Amino acid sequence: MRPNVLARTLVGITAVAGLAVGSLATAGTSFAASAPAPQAAVSAQSASLLATQNFGLTSAEAKNVQRWLAANWNYTDGIDGQLGTNSWKAFQRCLKTYWGYTGAIDGDPGTNTIKALQRLLKDSYGYTGAIDGIAGSGTRAAFKRFAA
Questions:
Q1: SS3 string of the chain?
Q2: Most buried residue, 2, 9, 41, 91, by most Cβ within 10 Å?
């Protein structure tokens, strides 16, 4: 089973379990049962969105990045155009080796990963913004140039 499918399945199961528990726990308290449902749905959606982070790349551009990661940074998952945890782990290996990334190789493209990515993009792909760890429009545009 692919990691993204597994992650989404687990998120879905967790959301359903949370809804069931919330409904049973508040069954006798009138309107209280309606509040947990939207919160659980929002949490499931947020977790699902974190499973893949392309930072504005199209699927074709993300596939280019994955092919580069497979050729150079021990990426072994599918070339599916979805930069998920294993894509970002491979990218973090590159960023750790050459671009000052000091965090864990955990596949989470958080602030420190983005700062290291911005250093790479500033060096060779026309990024002119601050090294601030925010994947704004300048970072995304330079990342598209990298992916091309």
A1: CCHHHHHHHHHHHHHHHHHHHHHHHCCCCHHHHHCHHHHHHHHHHHHHHHCECCCCCCHHHHHHHHHHHHHHCCCCCCCCCCCEHHHHHHHHHHHHHHCCCCCCCCCCCCHHHHHHHHHHHHHHCCCCCCCCCCCCHHHHHHHHHHHC
A2: 91
